[in-house]
Write a structure and sequence with these properties.
The complex is a heterodimer.
Chain A (H helix, E strand, L loop, with lengths): L1 H16 L1 H31 L7 E6 L13 H9 L6 E8 L7 E6 L4 H4 L3 E5 L10 E5 H7 L6 E4 L2 E10 L7 E5 H8 L7 E5 L9 E2 L3 E5 L2 H8 L2 H32 L1 H9 L6 H31 L2 E3 L2 E3 L5 H27 L3 H6 L2
Parallel strand pairs in A: 3-8, 5-7
Antiparallel strand pairs in A: 1-9, 1-11, 2-3, 2-9, 4-7, 5-8, 6-7, 10-11, 12-13
Chain B lengths: L7 H5 E14 L2 E14 L3 E5 L6 H8 L7 E6 L2 E2 L5 H11 E4 L11 H5 L1 H6 L3 H14 L15 H13 L5 E5 L7 H18 L2 E6 L10 E6 L2 E4 L7
Parallel strand pairs in B: 3-8, 3-9, 6-7, 7-8
Antiparallel strand pairs in B: 1-2, 1-4, 4-5, 9-10
Helix pairs in contact in B: 6-7, 7-8
The chains are: A alpha+beta, B alpha/beta.
Chain lengths: ~375, ~240
């Protein structure tokens, strides 16, 4: 064990002496690892954000519309009909996109202040939630919208030409973090819809079923299906990102394997000298492990900085949706686990290989 | 199975090689580097092997040092049968019995002189502090203690070879094998390295086997051999070391 520790130290000393070479190798890892992480983060983010809505609720909306997103307008009579059918809870919502262009579009949701906490799960990053009986022209906004428009709790946001005061900033972990939530009445006044709404959310309790139709061009869908169908439009892009992320992952592995092999090959004479003076074959692992781990740690550290820099400066937003990479703990830990495994294999295999090469030939190597 | 007992000669000689043959593969061709070499070296001898390039001098030293294995023949060094020893046993053998000195020094470029010298001690499991104390004492003997913090790149060729000799001596090996130790040095440095090896042999009784082109080494040799086309021929009778 002590010999292993000695060779670890010797390997590290040697690496520090060849800082420029180590830095170039670390940069190779940085490029591959950061591109992979960013792509994988975007892919995970897209997949998660459009697939996390609860399927416990049904949506009653205008047939062939994306009611949970935009395009549905139904009369309040539908709500009364649903109550008359014995539906235990009928939650009205308005969904619309405001703004004058694709760039400044905002997803707007009118919510029933008495009931919205039953259908939405969120946490507050700042301020407070909308309360029943509060004054008009108040709004809660998702953290991503707040970040994109640089609005803080207590500030104002312009919705269809009118200023609303931001009471709180919420977080749901879904695409809804791009939305602005206002009282249903405010939304109806803002749009001039009278008592009309976009959709009614009802619990899936067996009275109505997915794909059922009601009179007047109304149909029932599973909650989340509409937004997923919007997301399906992005599916080819997500699939492409999947392929590119996998390719980058493979490139990272190849880059690491190549770097470790190259390191071992560059150090073959030093390793032969160590074997000649009596270090056992297994202790060569220490020498290579120290170098591989040193280069990898620097590379991973720099890629972490690169990813942070990228995600904090590059904002991708389309039609009110901003897309952000999801770099959660399991993703990062599993990536680090894979890298650790690669470092270990990348040291063990060349060490085993070098320990079986003819020592006399290695000593002559220049 | 019949027990193999050491013969009287084997017990007296540090190195006992009989019928050593080494064949290399070069592409599809077999190249015989050594032909039936017989060699006996007693403890404390200073033996010199001379011969032209490619005659097999380095190959012979590699076999004697457990760096390479013979294709055929018997080889015992300090009581260890190098033909049948496992790789791990050969590693231990090298560590405990052999000091190597090479033409191009083979020092680790990232380590200073002192840390290069103590590598065999670290390989044996001695701690850094004790190793460095011992290393300084050895560097003192080769006249380089004042250069202990210098890396190989900051030392002259002669100084690097002194560091290599110190590294070879640090574990007080049974034998030091030197392969062209003056081959990369100017005549003044070469002279001082020859003098150093002769001094260590005479003062401390260190056994040396030196492969060289340098005929000056014959002046200090107790026994000399000539190796031509892989065949070894003794040139002189032993003289007192």
């Amino acid at each position: 064990m002590q010999r292993l520790a000695v060779t670890l130290r010797l390997g590290l000393q040697d690496l520090l002496r060849h800082r420029r070479l180590a830095l170039v190798m670390a940069l190779l890892i940085t490029v591959a690892a950061s591109v992979f992480t960013i792509l994988e983060g975007y892919r995970t983010g897209l997949a998660d954000e459009f697939n996390t809505l609860s399927g416990q609720w049904l949506v009653v909306q205008e047939t062939e519309s994306f009611g949970e997103f935009y395009g549905s307008r139904i009369s309040s009579r539908v709500g009364e009909e649903l109550a008359g059918m014995g539906v235990s809870r009928v939650v009205p919502e308005i969904h619309i996109i405001t703004g004058t262009s694709v760039q400044n579009a905002t997803l707007l949701r009118g919510i029933d202040l008495e009931q919205y906490r039953r259908t939405e799960t969120f946490t507050l990053d700042a301020g407070r939630a909308l309360q029943p009986g509060g004054p008009a022209r108040l709004v809660m906004i998702g953290w991503r919208l707040a970040e994109n428009q640089q609005i803080k709790s207590g500030g104002t946001i312009l919705l269809r030409g009118r200023n609303f005061t931001v009471t709180g900033i919420f977080r749901t972990g879904t695409y809804m973090d791009n939305e602005a939530w206002i009282a249903l009445k405010d939304a109806q006044d803002l749009l001039g819809w009278g008592s009309d709404v976009s959709v009614y959310l009802i619990p899936d309790e067996g009275i109505l079923h997915e794909s059922d139709t009601l009179t007047g061009g109304i149909s029932v869908a599973r909650r989340g299906e509409g937004i997923r169908s919007v997301a399906y439009q992005y599916q080819p892009i997500i699939d492409l990102m999947d392929v590119v992320a996998l390719a980058m992952g493979a490139a990272t592995i190849l880059a690491l394997a190549n770097i470790f092999w190259r390191l071992a090959w560059l150090r073959r004479r030093e390793l032969a000298i160590l074997r000649t003076v009596g270090f056992p074959a297994y202790s060569l692992v220490g020498y290579l492990l120290a170098q591989a781990a040193g280069v990898t740690l620097v590379g991973i550290g720099m890629s972490g900085l690169a990813v942070l820099l990228f995600t904090s400066t590059v904002k991708l937003a389309v039609t009110g949706f901003s897309i952000a990479p999801r770099l959660d703990q399991p993703t990062i830990l599993s990536s680090l686990g894979w890298v650790g495994l690669l470092v270990l294999i990348g040291s063990l295999v060349p060490a085993w290989w070098l320990s079986h090469l003819n020592l006399a030939k290695l000593l002559r190597a220049e | 199975m019949e027990a193999i007992l050491p013969t009287e000669t084997a017990s007296q000689n540090l190195i006992e090689a009989t019928g050593l043959k080494k064949v290399y593969k070069r592409g599809d061709e077999d190249v015989t580097a050594l032909h039936k070499v017989d060699l006996s070296v007693a403890k404390g001898e200073f033996s010199v092997i001379i011969g032209p390039s490619g005659s097999g001098k380095s190959t012979l030293l590699h076999l004697l040092g457990g760096i390479d294995r013979p294709t055929r023949g018997q080889l015992r060094v300090n009581g260890v049968d190098l033909v049948s020893a496992s790789d791990a046993a050969l590693t231990r053998f090298r560590r405990d019995n052999i000091g190597f000195v090479f033409q191009f020094y083979n020092l680790l470029p990232s380590l200073n002189a002192l840390d290069n010298v103590i590598l065999p001690l670290l390989a044996r499991g001695m701690g850094w502090k004790a190793s460095r104390e011992r290393g300084r004492a050895i560097l003192e003997q080769v006249g380089l203690v004042q250069r202990q913090k210098h890396t190989p790149g900051q030392l002259s060729g002669g100084e690097q070879q002194r560091v290599a000799i110190a590294r070879a001596m640090v574990l007080e090996p049974a034998v030091i094998l030197a392969d062209e130790p003056t081959g990369d040095l100017d005549s003044a440095s070469a002279g001082s390295i020859v003098a150093l090896m002769a001094d260590l042999n005479q003062r401390l009784g260190v056994t040396f086997i030196v492969a060289t082109h340098n005929l000056n080494l014959l002046k200090v040799a107790g026994r000399s051999y000539e190796l031509v086309d892989g065949r070894l021929k003794q040139s002189d009778q032993p003289t007192p070391a």
